[in-house]
């Protein structure tokens, strides 16, 4: 099967497995796992921050950040397609007792002007605007990304309005290989950053939360109360370190293959619309009599797996385990329909 469901389905390469087998491990709750300590120091240095925290998932890193940055009766501002709203079970309310204000942006992106307009006045009957969350790249936005020039005005608004700024950077490196911008530049703009190791980077498990020393000290306690304190997880951390060293630049291949798929889909008469393909995600609508369900069933019969994103909407996601030959096979089958 050619699996285009998600870049989360990647499996460790043989080289990554060898690094994992050789990892030195300890008890991370006591800060005694050398492989985790090394990964956290590596990630913090990449973004010019003081500290980092290794967690099981990106949902956990986002929710920890939200909890540390806010308190009950505060409000989070984000674009309506954001992962923290769409796919984290209302965790902002469950874990942190805060509300959320959604902005209708473009392909998952919002502007500084929209953020400024969303900040509440200081009335007793309104929650306190406290945190802005950007997703880069935006999953439901079709892998869209913010450039530094788009982020800087938002950061300026946050400083003026005394808001904290968090980056859900689960697929951040897919954006950076397109823009050529640096992790140091990104780090300078955000109070906290979450990056995922188990998507396009190809590690089996894990995300990192990155910030200043006091922020991460508090985040460790929140990770513990959420059940995220791990023991000999250095085997997983070693995979993450390898991914950051070896698998970042190759993400450009995934982006290029997604763009190749998008270009083909735009020329097919059974496709209604293709969202702009910016990185490794392709979202498109099929025309009746197809539905996403019947279309995906047909592809499955041809050995291709993909994800439904609505009654008529399908998502393809390219990744480490999808080769150029596989993409050509998919294109051949799409043209036959």
Neighbour order of strands in the largest sheet: 2-8-7-6-5-3-4
Instruction: Report the portion of residues in β strands.
Output: 15-25%
Domain count: the total is 2
Tally the helices.
14
Stretches where pLDDT is under 50 for at least 5 consecutive residues are none
The CATH fourth-level homologous superfamily of the largest domain: Type I PLP-dependent aspartate aminotransferase-like (Major domain)
Number of strands: 13
Describe this protein with a few key phrases.
42% helix, 14 helices, 337 residues, Aspartate Aminotransferase, domain 2, alpha/beta, globular, 2 domains, 18% strand
Q: Can you tell me about this structure?
A:
This protein has 14 helices and 13 strands. The protein is α/β, with parallel strands linked by helices. The protein has two domains: 12-246, Type I PLP-dependent aspartate aminotransferase-like (Major domain) (Aspartate Aminotransferase, domain 2, 3-Layer(aba) Sandwich), CATH 3.40.640; 250-336, Aspartate Aminotransferase, domain 1 (Alpha-Beta Complex), CATH 3.90.1150. The strands form three sheets. The chain has a seven-stranded mixed sheet with strand order 2-8-7-6-5-3-4, with helices on both faces. A four-stranded antiparallel sheet has the order 9-10-13-12, covered by helices on one side. The two termini are 18 Å apart.
């Amino acid at each position: 099967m050619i699996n285009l469901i998600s870049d989360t389905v990647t499996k460790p390469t043989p080289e990554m497995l060898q690094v994992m087998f050789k990892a030195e491990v300890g008890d991370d709750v006591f800060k005694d796992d050398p492989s985790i300590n090394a990964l956290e120091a590596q990630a913090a240095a990449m973004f010019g921050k003081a500290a980092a925290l290794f967690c099981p998932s990106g949902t956990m890193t986002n929710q920890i950040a939200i909890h540390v940055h806010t308190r009950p009766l505060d409000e989070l501002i984000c674009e309506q397609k954001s992962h923290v709203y769409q796919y984290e079970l209302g965790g902002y309310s469950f874990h942190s007792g805060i509300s959320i204000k959604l902005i209708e942006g473009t392909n998952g992106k919002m502007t500084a002007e929209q953020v400024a307009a969303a900040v509440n006045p200081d009335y007793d009957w309104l929650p306190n605007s406290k945190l802005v969350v950007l997703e880069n790249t935006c999953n439901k936005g079709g892998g869209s990304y913010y450039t530094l020039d788009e982020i800087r005005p938002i950061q300026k608004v946050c400083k003026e309005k005394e808001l904290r700024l968090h980056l859900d950077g689960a697929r951040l490196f897919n954006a950076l290989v397109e823009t050529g911008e640096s992790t140091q530049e990104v780090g300078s703009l955000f109070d906290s950053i979450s990056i995922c190791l188990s998507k396009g980077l190809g590690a089996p498990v894990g995300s990192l939360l990155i910030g200043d020393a006091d922020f991460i000290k508090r985040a460790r306690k929140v990770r513990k109360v959420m059940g995220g304190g791990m023991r000999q997880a250095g085997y997983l951390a070693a995979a993450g370190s390898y991914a950051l060293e070896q698998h970042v630049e190759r993400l450009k291949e995934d982006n290029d293959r997604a763009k190749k798929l998008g270009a083909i889909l735009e020329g097919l008469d059974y496709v209604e619309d293709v969202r702009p393909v910016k990185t490794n995600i392709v979202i498109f609508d099929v025309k009746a009599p197809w539905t996403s369900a019947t279309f995906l069933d047909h592809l499955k019969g041809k050995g291709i797996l993909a994800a439904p994103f609505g009654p008529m909407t399908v998502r393809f996601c390219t990744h480490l385990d999808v080769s150029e030959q596989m993409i050509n096979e998919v294109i051949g089958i799409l043209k036959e329909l």
